[in-house]
Amino acid sequence: MQDFSDNELLAYLQQGDHQAFSILVDRHAKKFYRLAFRFLNSCEPSQDVVQDAFLALWEHPERWNPNRNTRFTTWFYRIIVNRSLDLLKKKGGSAQEETPHKDLEVAQYDSSPQESQLLDGERHHQLTTAIALLPKNQQIAINLCFFEDMSNKEAAEIMEINLKALQSLIMRAKSNIRKQLSKEKVI
Length: 187
What we know:
The protein is mainly alpha-helical and 187 residues long. The protein has two domains: 1-94, RNA polymerase sigma factor, region 2, helix turn helix motif (Rna Polymerase Sigma Factor, Chain: A, Orthogonal Bundle); 107-187, Winged helix-like DNA-binding domain superfamily/Winged helix DNA-binding domain (Arc Repressor Mutant, subunit A). The protein is 69% helix and 0% strand. It has eight helices and no strands. Helix 2 (18-40) crosses helix 4, helix 3 (43-59) packs across helix 4 (72-90) and helix 6 (136-147) crosses helix 8. The longest helix has 23 residues, at 18-40. It is globular and about 55 Å long. It starts with 5 loop residues before the first helix and ends with a helix.
């Protein structure tokens, strides 16, 4: 079953096959988690979003319709984006911040590997903050195209917009990020 396509696994899942479901989860959970984390910036809520989405798929596999000519991952990315945004709305638009560099300490000022790691961590934090300040559609476009390595066509399909609209969102997002980072004198 490991070699089955997502559509084949989903067909088995619709028949109640536990193994097919397990393979789908193993195959895709990490990338869906990464996307949720980009919106929520916190481990536990991101895990909850992904687990709840997969649980809903297990409980209602008939919601997946292979006749829509949409790949499973495209359809499920949209679910993850919507659930992440819904959770942000419930929390008042902010997520708990977890920065991977917060525990880094520079033992000596001239310790270049550590200093470099700290600076990279700080740049990452500033970029993450700048992205978080973008309007939601721009955040989604940037996250899908640049951090999830999706083609513009795939991202547009997930966002349910046309390709030109996506390209426009990306251009505006890049411009807004540049403005934000230049305020902080990062670029």
